[in-house]
Amino acid sequence: MTRVNSDECLLTRFQEMSLDYHFKFEQEAGSVIYSFFGFNGTAGVWRISAIDDAGGWKDRTTVEDMDLAVRTTLQGWKFVYVGDVQVRSELPSTFKAYRFQQHRWSCGPANLFKKMMVEILENKKVSFLSKIHLLYDFFFVGKIAAHTVTFIYYCFAIPVSVFFPEIQIPLWGMVYVPTVITICKALGSPSSFHLVILWVLFENVMSLHRIKAATTGLLDAGRVNEWVVTEKLGDANKAKSATDGLDAVKVIDIDLTTPLVPKLKKWPIRFWHKYNFSEIFVGTFIIICGCYDVLYAKKGYYIYLFVQGLAFLVVGFEYIGTRLPSTE
Please, what is the angle between helix 95-122 and helix 196-219, to 10°? Predict the structure, then answer.
């Protein structure tokens, strides 16, 4: 899959790195061994008989594409990933759009996991190992535990440990193992390898948002069914310059320009809508832990804590991604 705007900003570069790992490793690996891998909703070719056999599309979650893929797998169908076929796609370049997308991508699978757990266990057409792979590897580890462990370990356990002298995190757990895992995941995007440290810091920040979304899906509460179409800028930011100097264009019939649906009233943006306070709170807490380490604990964690705390603040104040001009 070719992302047409991957070089637009740092946010799109981070997305490209994550998606390259997803497609080049996760999808390819699942295809090679004919194991389950989730249909990502775009650029897929389906047999109508497979869709009918699985019971058709269902709207019980916000990940209807994954829902269909799971039910089709339970009917014995296999998926093949063809990486040689390239399609063009666009990434969300504003952080607001990216947050809404990640909420859906984290909340939906967790909600589907809850709703299909019994159905998967009772299925008679797939092997026991296939059920374990689907429930444990794909859903529990990939969609829930990965975000939870990332946040608890890097954004809570390490910062809090500076207040307890008896807690000593071994170097292999602090540096070696995370470094190896990160390098392996970054191999899918060699052109962006120099951004790997920033990418890891950003993914740690996003783990907070993904945990909240996954919890919402598991509890089937709050914004569990929220569907916000991911905003893509396309050529919208170039439209103004492209139409400069076209003053000669005149409206012939005013009825042709009357919208069929009345324009919705745009409410003013409040102060508390402009910032992400949960990220600001966590970032401030981590920086405070770093200061304590410098002054009292002296464990040497402060370098990581300052950088990670700053990453939370950057995201909290939304100094990442494309910033659109204010329309107020």
Answer: 50
**Tens-place pLDDT, residues 221-248:** 989 999 888 888 875 444 444 444 444 4
- Between CA 187 and CA 21 the distance in angstroms is 8
Output the 3-class SS for the chain.
CEECCCCCCHHHHHHHHHHHHHHHHHHHHHHHCCCCCCCCCCCCCCCHHHHHHCCCCCCCCCCHHHHHHHHHHHCCCCCCCCCCCCCEECCCCEHHHHHHHHHHHHHHHHHHHHHHHHHHHHCCCCCHHHHHHHHHHHHHHHHHHHHHHHHHHHHHHHHHHCCCCCCCCCHHHHHHHHHHHHHHHHCCCHHHHHHHHHHHHHHHHHHHHHHHHHHHHHHCCCCCCCCCCCCCCCCHHHHHHHHCCCCCCCCCCHHHHCCCCCCCCCCCCCHHHCCCHHHHHHHHHHHHHHHHHHHHHCCCCHHHHHHHHHHHHHHHCCCCECCCCCCC
d(C-alpha 327, C-alpha 317), whole Å: 19
Tokens 């370098």 -> residue: 303
**Residues shown for the chain:** 328
Closest CA to 84 of 32, 24, 15, 36: 24
Phi first, then psi: what are they for 321, rounded to 5°?
85, 180
d(CA 26, CA 34): 12
- pTM, two decimals, is 0.86
Q: What is the pLDDT of residues 26-46, one digit of tens each?
A: 888 877 776 777 788 778 899
Residue 94 pairs in a beta bridge with 321
Beta-bridge partners for 88? 2
Beta bridge partners of 321: 94
